[in-house]
Amino acid sequence: MSFIDEAKFYVKGGDGGNGCVSFRREKYVPKGGPNGGDGGHGGAVILMASKDLNSLLDFRYRSHFKAERGGNGQGKDMHGRNGKDCYIDVPVGSFVKDGETGEILADLTEDGETLLVAEGGKGGLGNVHFASSTNRAPRVATKGKRDIPGLVEGASQGVGLGHTFLRHIERTTILLHVLDASDIHCVPNFKLIMAELEKYNTQLLQRNLVVVLNKCDLIDKSRIAHLHNYFSSLNVQSVAISALRRQNIEQLKDVIDNLMEESDEMEPA
């Protein structure tokens, strides 16, 4: 005789810690450079098969699991510590599925076998990363990140992670649309994303918006100019980069830096 045991539970990776805004303070150097440390990465949630378990009874008493948040960065280039991973023991032979999509994730058949089910968020960057030739004293750092999946068509009606994803977006002040500039569907993909945002909440279209045209090293200059002209006609700022070759990364940093400073100035004291 065999028994089938089933349990549904919720997992969340730890948020990344915030980056720090700080400057060197030395006796004879009144205006030292930036030295804000990065935030630590959030912990992950990991399932581990254990031969010491033979049922899922424990999940009746605990159904939510969250990994530890990363520590905030500090001055003197001190980075926040990484959050601790959250390990969840399950019986050997456990069959794991995504509760929302029904996708089969794994069949844990060996003792000690693991499965990453929620990745931790990346730590925010300290202000040392935002120094540039035009801004040697940046007063900006980024907040820790959450592991947010991509937006899909129909998200405004709940498709995929739907409203869960869009609620994360509502907490942001700046939206960066990273598009594959070498994809012929680059513009249609942008239109799809904007349409989903508008259907969910029209106020999201009022946020600071920057389109990041990635993989610009794979297309010719006329194509880049055409894309810039298109987004300019929509009053949308665009920056062409190559993440692989590190092209125009400093320009993108300056754009983000300026937008964040504008956002800080608009917030009530």
Automatic annotation (TrEMBL):
According to its UniProt entry, the protein's GO biological process terms are: ribosome biogenesis
Q: Which UniProt keywords apply?
A: GTP-binding, Nucleotide-binding, Ribosome biogenesis
UniProt-listed Gene3D superfamilies: GTP1/OBG domain (2.70.210.12), P-loop containing nucleotide triphosphate hydrolases (3.40.50.300)
Q: Which domain of life is it from?
A: Eukaryota
Which molecular function terms from Gene Ontology are attached? GTP binding; GTPase activity; magnesium ion binding
Q: Name one Pfam family in it.
A: GTP1_OBG
Q: Describe the family membership recorded for this protein in Swiss-Prot or TrEMBL.
A: Belongs to the TRAFAC class OBG-HflX-like GTPase superfamily. OBG GTPase family.
Protein name per its UniProtKB record:
Uncharacterized protein
> What organism is recorded for this protein?
Cyprideis torosa
